[in-house]
Amino acid sequence: MIKIAPSILSADFSKLGDEIKKVEQAGADLIHIDVMDGHFVPNLTIGPNVVAAVRNVTKLPFDVHLMVSNPQDLVLPFIEAGADILTVHAEAASHLHRIIETIKKGNKGSCQAGVSLNPATSIVWIEDILREVDLILLMSVNPGFGGQSFIPLVLEKIRRLKAQLKACNSNAVIEVDGGINANTAASVIEAGADILVAGSAIYGAKNCAAAIRQLKNAAAL
Fold first, then answer.
1. Across 42-91, where does the E strand assignment appear?
2. Is 95 annotated as a binding residue?
3. What is the mean pLDDT of residues 40-64?
4. 29, 37, 134, 177: which one is catalytic?
5. Residue 12 burial (C-beta neighbours within 10 Å; 0-12, 13-18, 19+)
6. Which among 201, 183, 208 is positioned nearest to 9, based on CA atoms?
7. Helix (H) or strand (E) holding 121
8. pLDDT per residue over 136-179, tens digit each?
9. 178 assigned binding-site residue
10. Which residue out of 29, 34, 63, 134 is catalytically annotated?
């Protein structure tokens, strides 16, 4: 089953709790939380305190994506704030294996570990840890801003990653983030994605439930 993770980057931050409840009631499977530091990416978003403040709003898993330059400094604060999945960028991690271990051991092993790659970063970067992670997030736009257009070259990257996961008997799931909408979802799912992150396609829709159903139904196309 394809899972849908609405990105709160596109939500109305003045009523963030209500925005999270809205997509939960609409059929979301996870809540995707983009953390930006203004350094690894140009934008600046939220910290652990915000995650902790909305943790009791929903029972859905918090899928926290760290787009930061020094992820090792923020891993434990976000786990303590309530992250269920914590993803770091391979490009920003000097000691990626150590960070993955820290995530998996944090808060008595309650958090899953993910690794992310930008569109132009080869999957060669993470070949040696494919069996160590729970999730691999492939960016299908250059990170830092919402509402960007999907980069088609990522489709072949998804296919290659899917084949490598199978070859090494990894149970990691593939998540894709960037430009996901009714027009791109089917090809992304066909290529091998398990989780779709969508921001403006859901929060910008007149009917969130219909938008989520449309993305899930793309698997049948």
1. 62-67, 85-89
2. no
3. 96
4. 177
5. exposed
6. 201
7. none
8. 999 999 987 777 899 999 999 999 999 999 999 999 999 999 99
9. yes
10. 34
Q: Is 179 marked within a binding site?
A: yes
Q: What pTM value is reported for the model?
A: 0.96
Q: Is 149 annotated as a binding residue?
A: no
Task: Count the domains in the chain.
Answer: 1
CB atoms under 10 Å from CB of 41, counted, come to 21
Active site residue 37: no
Which domain, by its residues, includes 181? 3-220
Closest-CA residue to 143 (of 10, 15, 20, 35)? 35
- CATH number, position 210: 3.20.20.70
Please state, in angstroms and rounded to a whole number, the distance separating the CA atoms of residues 14 and 88: 27
> CA 203, CA 143: separation in Å to the nearest integer?
19
CA separation for the pair 160, 77 (Å, rounded): 34
Higher pLDDT, 156 or 221: 156
